[in-house]
Amino acid sequence: MAEDEPSGWRKPFSRVSLFWRTFFLIAILLIGSILAWLQTLRALEFEPRAVQTAQLLASQVNLSRAALVYADGIGRISLIKTMKDEEGLRIVPREPGDTFESKDNDAFSRRVVAELGTRLGKGTVVASSVNGQPGLWVSFVIDGDDYWLQTDQAKFNPAGGTTWLIWLLVATVMSLAGAALIAGLINRPLKELSFAASRMREGNFSASQLDEHVNTSEIREVNIGFNRMAQKLAKVEQDRALMLAGISHDLRTPLARLRLETEMSVNNEEARAHMAADISQLDAIIDKFLDYARPDRVSLTPVVLGDVVDTCIYSMRKLPDVQVRVDMEDDLLVYADEVELGRVITNLLENARRYGKSVHTGIADIHISAVAKDKWVLVKVRDHGIGVAPEQLYQLTQPFFRGEAARTAANGAGLGLAIVEKTMQRMGGTFHIANSSSGGLSANLRLQRATRF
């Protein structure tokens, strides 16, 4: 269990794209650095701000006390009124029964109070309210009489406040924007490489060229290596197609002569029929090679799916061991190459006819259906045979693979479904094989839906 937990913990994060992973890591680093700097600045500013605040309050108290000491009775009253109206300073006598709340609720306040005690005397009281009236109150003594000085609460602010919050928000936003920019710049070459690799996987080698003149030396070397690999693979693919086409073409001539000589020189009618069937099988296998070696580029146009299906099943309607049912709309349009799509349907029908016969009737009951869904058309070609072992399903589309003997009568080259998959990829669609829940094999095609001409 302990070994499974780390992998389970990594799973959600591993699904995030490389851009967002890089962005989050850089953002966490930057935000952590900002918070660390913020705490450092606050710590460095704590002592100077506390001393400055205490000095300001002490100056106000000393100036107010000096002004009152040297003023006569009438002038003192006028002075107190002027200080209240002009400076926001209120001076009232301190009575023995006054109730107050000491301002010592945090480290900054305690440091200011201690500094004021040093400057004004140990008996100095700093309160946040006196007799229920909030404010910043400081006690002082004039000629033995106690007084309260009420001043602006804003002068007693520790480090932080709105200014620090605004600074933190601005720094965070700028850090996130910078993280997104850096992540984008880092991941752009990887995104281009991924796109080129996907294009090359689809067989489009010419569209998978990367820039070989980028400034970053490491990326430039990767791009050059990738382009050379793509060129070599394109040459290999071209040579392979040319070789298969050449071999298939060269085999046609001796096969034609062999067929002619068989018809003319073999007297036994049964032997002649068997030899002709073998030659026809060889000719069909050559056709499969040619289909598999076709170029990867096709021109897609709107095609009426029903017309292609009708053409493909026309020759099968007269066969005694095949029953074909079609269930689709008459005007269903798909983007495809009509000839290529015909080869796909024909291969699937032939595969179902050979290997999808019922064990009871010996007849291949084939059902073709199609339905439009969003931007796609889903086509299903299903037989009612015995199906395929689940562990062999993924191998059916591999070239030259043959399934178990119950489905393979050893008549084909093992290229039919491989040709279907390759052709569907060329037309921008997908191909999937599955066992039907009620028996038989289901071949599922997904084609791009087309609009009316």
From TrEMBL:
<feature type="transmembrane region" description="Helical">
    <location>
        <begin position="18"/>
        <end position="38"/>
    </location>
</feature>
<protein>
    <recommendedName>
        <fullName>histidine kinase</fullName>
        <ecNumber>2.7.13.3</ecNumber>
    </recommendedName>
</protein>
<keyword id="KW-0812">Transmembrane</keyword>
<keyword id="KW-0472">Membrane</keyword>
<dbReference type="Pfam" id="PF02518">
    <property type="entry name" value="HATPase_c"/>
</dbReference>
<keyword id="KW-0997">Cell inner membrane</keyword>
<feature type="transmembrane region" description="Helical">
    <location>
        <begin position="164"/>
        <end position="186"/>
    </location>
</feature>
<dbReference type="InterPro" id="IPR004358">
    <property type="entry name" value="Sig_transdc_His_kin-like_C"/>
</dbReference>
<dbReference type="InterPro" id="IPR032408">
    <property type="entry name" value="RisS_PPD"/>
</dbReference>
<keyword id="KW-0597">Phosphoprotein</keyword>
<dbReference type="GO" id="GO:0005524">
    <property type="term" value="F:ATP binding"/>
</dbReference>
<dbReference type="InterPro" id="IPR003660">
    <property type="entry name" value="HAMP_dom"/>
</dbReference>
<feature type="domain" description="HAMP">
    <location>
        <begin position="184"/>
        <end position="238"/>
    </location>
</feature>
<keyword id="KW-0418">Kinase</keyword>
<dbReference type="InterPro" id="IPR005467">
    <property type="entry name" value="His_kinase_dom"/>
</dbReference>
<feature type="domain" description="Histidine kinase">
    <location>
        <begin position="246"/>
        <end position="451"/>
    </location>
</feature>
<keyword id="KW-1003">Cell membrane</keyword>
<dbReference type="Pfam" id="PF16524">
    <property type="entry name" value="RisS_PPD"/>
</dbReference>
<dbReference type="InterPro" id="IPR036890">
    <property type="entry name" value="HATPase_C_sf"/>
</dbReference>
<dbReference type="InterPro" id="IPR036097">
    <property type="entry name" value="HisK_dim/P_sf"/>
</dbReference>
<keyword id="KW-0547">Nucleotide-binding</keyword>
<keyword id="KW-0808">Transferase</keyword>
<dbReference type="InterPro" id="IPR050980">
    <property type="entry name" value="2C_sensor_his_kinase"/>
</dbReference>
<keyword id="KW-0067">ATP-binding</keyword>
<keyword id="KW-1133">Transmembrane helix</keyword>
<keyword id="KW-0902">Two-component regulatory system</keyword>
<dbReference type="Pfam" id="PF00512">
    <property type="entry name" value="HisKA"/>
</dbReference>
<dbReference type="InterPro" id="IPR003661">
    <property type="entry name" value="HisK_dim/P_dom"/>
</dbReference>
<dbReference type="InterPro" id="IPR003594">
    <property type="entry name" value="HATPase_dom"/>
</dbReference>
<dbReference type="InterPro" id="IPR038421">
    <property type="entry name" value="RisS_PPD_sf"/>
</dbReference>
<dbReference type="Pfam" id="PF00672">
    <property type="entry name" value="HAMP"/>
</dbReference>
